[in-house]
Design a protein that fits this description.
Elements: H1 22-33, E1 39-42, H2 49-58, E2 63-68, H3 71-83, E3 90-94, E4 108-114, H4 129-142, E5 143-153, H5 160-172, E6 179-184, E7 195-201
Parallel strand pairs: 1-2, 1-4, 2-3, 4-5
Antiparallel strand pairs: 5-7, 6-7
Helix pairs in contact: 4-5
The chain binds S-adenosylmethionine.
Residues 44-50, 67-70, 73, 96-98, 114, 116-119, 125, 127, 131 line the site of S-adenosylmethionine.
Length: 203
Amino acid sequence: MSGAEAAPLIAAAPKNDSLRGAVTLAHFFLRQRLRPGDLALDATCGNGLDTRLLAELTGPEGRVWGFDLQAAAIAATRALLEREGRLAQVTLIEAGHERLAEFAPAGLRAAVFNLGYLPGGDPAFTTSPASTLSALRQAASLLARQGIIVVSLYTGHEGGVEEALAVERWGAALAPKEFNVWCSRQLNRPAIAPYLMLVERTR
Ligand SMILES: C[S@@+](CC[C@H](N)C(=O)[O-])C[C@H]1O[C@@H](n2cnc3c(N)ncnc32)[C@H](O)[C@@H]1O
């Protein structure tokens, strides 16, 4: 089910409510938008921190789908969720997010794309423009009204600039009657600092 409008946030405020960095800003929007019972998707589980937040915000009555190509990432995410008693509400899929429509349903209230490479993993193994764009298109078509996609973009690694520009071009071409598309950069940090794109479905 999609979240009831009046339901309270179950994880209202982070312990440290600083807005430093793209991922923190993504979490700020997710906390604003997600409610218990919602459906959500993490397109790049990595170490599981984003998946954990989605599970926390959607609660036991919600459902989360998490994807990663790397077995180590799925294992790390599973271990984190298990430790926190949140595994039952999450479906973890060891597959490329370009296959997400095979697994995830329509009606998503949020989809998270934290691009780049696995922190602590092989920096040569990164997300790539073709599969990222395919997954973004699928996620956009599965969004509920007022559902959001948050994309953390990294330009500091090889191929990062190309991927970020491809994602920006995709976002800029979305029909304004159907989607609101935002881009947020931290102006007082170096130009290569990660930044955030947000897509909201309007109808
Ligand atoms: C920046 S990390 C994600 C961080 C993570 N969300 C967290 O909270 O720790 C990017 C992840 O994308 C994964 N990845 C790369 N290509 C992918 C693809 N086509 N489908 C799914 N995951 C992919 C990598 O294996 C890596 O774990």
